[in-house]
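Tutorial handout. Part one gives the primary structure; part two gives the three-dimensional structure as tokens.
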Amino acid sequence: MWERVIIILQFYLRAGTIYNVQSKFMFDFVVNVLDDRDRFYAFAKVEQQRQLLLKTALTIDVVDHGAGSHHLKGNQRSVKSIARNSLSPRAKSEILFKIVNYYDILRTLELGTSLGISSAYLAIANIKNTVYTLEGDHNILTIAKKVHLKLALKNIKYYEGRFDQNIAEVLEEMKRVDLAFIDGHHSEKPTIAYYEQILPYCHEGSIIILDDIHWSASMYNAWANISGRKEVTLAIELMDIGVVFLDPKLSKQQIAYVPHRWKPWKIGLFG
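Part two.
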């Protein structure tokens, strides 16, 4: 817990705001994605499903293939406890939506479906976007599918099982990755390995997002490794996610940024 708090406080000490942004591309990203105040009608629809999950007392057996949870222990967990502790908060989910919407993303890879809220945001942002989502646990994926069914989402493809067993096949099926959202395993070596597997399928317009980079020193090491690579031209460290752009036309930059409307307690940083 204290390791995580220290990492977050260090982030705040080096983070800037819109007043520190100099790059034209970064300024556009801030204005139209990070600090954009628009509330799309789809947000309320997805959040209604989140609220239902938060009230679901059903207990399910869970097989955790990653680094586990800071809060949830044992293999039997209630759906509402998973929803409370494992789902991407609304502020973070809206950023995913706006990236897909603004950059007209058509092929998205998600590692870590969980209960389906983040994949719902990714899919509902653009009906032309096909979301290829991987989840290790059968019971959790079953609930996610029900969430997506209620939202009438037909542009999501599901893959059940360990990421390392499925990712190569999924990437071959996708052929090209416009957006990758890596939200699973939560440890250094696997995260870097997934990035390296995804990279050959990317192009100069691709965006790769790492979730929970402030989860632990191990995850922050993964972020530092990836954000410093030669193919990464713009690396943006946000509250608890890291976003990398691969466009060689961009000037080489690493930026820590605090969206003006984000609060730590709203995105689960200290949760």
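Part three, for discussion. The radius of gyration is 17 Å. The chain has ten helices and ten strands.
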